[in-house]
Amino acid sequence: MTSRAQPKLPTFAHVATGVLMTVHDLPPLNVRWSYGLKATMLAAVDAGAITEEDLCARYKISAEEYRTWRSRYAAYGPRGLRSPDRVKTHQHQQGASNDR
């Protein structure tokens, strides 16, 4: 009897925790997107655990939204993936504290 080695799945690191994950660790379909989870999904695509097309289809994300994630991550890192409302609120709070 010959034993077959299981093909090794691509791994990627969860951005917030650093835990190595595989495609089996992807979030459920009804996920609420946090900036850390968006960054983790970008890492999953980079590692080959899921393609950009599969990610968009699985989670019903437009290609345009995915490209926005990618460009904001490239420009600002994980925090660039925060929702625009949260970024504006944070910037407003920072401005108010600098006015004192």
Q: Can you characterise this structure?
A:
- The structure is a single chain.
- The chain is mostly helical and 100 residues long.
- It has one domain (12-98): Arc Repressor Mutant, subunit A.
- Helix content is 50%, strand content 4%.
- A two-stranded antiparallel sheet has the order 1-2.
- The model is unreliable at 88-92 (pLDDT under 50).
* CATH architectural arrangement: Orthogonal Bundle
Question: What structural class should be given to the helix and strand makeup?
Answer: mainly alpha
Number of helices: 4
CATH superfamily: Winged helix-like DNA-binding domain superfamily/Winged helix DNA-binding domain
Order of strands, widest sheet: 1-2
Radius of gyration: 17 Å
Distance between the termini: 76 Å
**What's the overall geometry?**
globular
Helix content: 40-55%
Which strand-content bin applies to the residues? under 5%
Give a short overview.
With 100 residues, the chain is mostly helical.
Question: Which SSEs are present, and which pair or pack?
Answer:
Elements: E1 12-13, E2 20-21, H1 35-47, H2 52-59, H3 63-76, H4 84-98
Antiparallel strand pairs: 1-2
List keywords for this structure.
100 residues, mainly alpha, two-stranded antiparallel ribbon, 2 strands, 50% helix
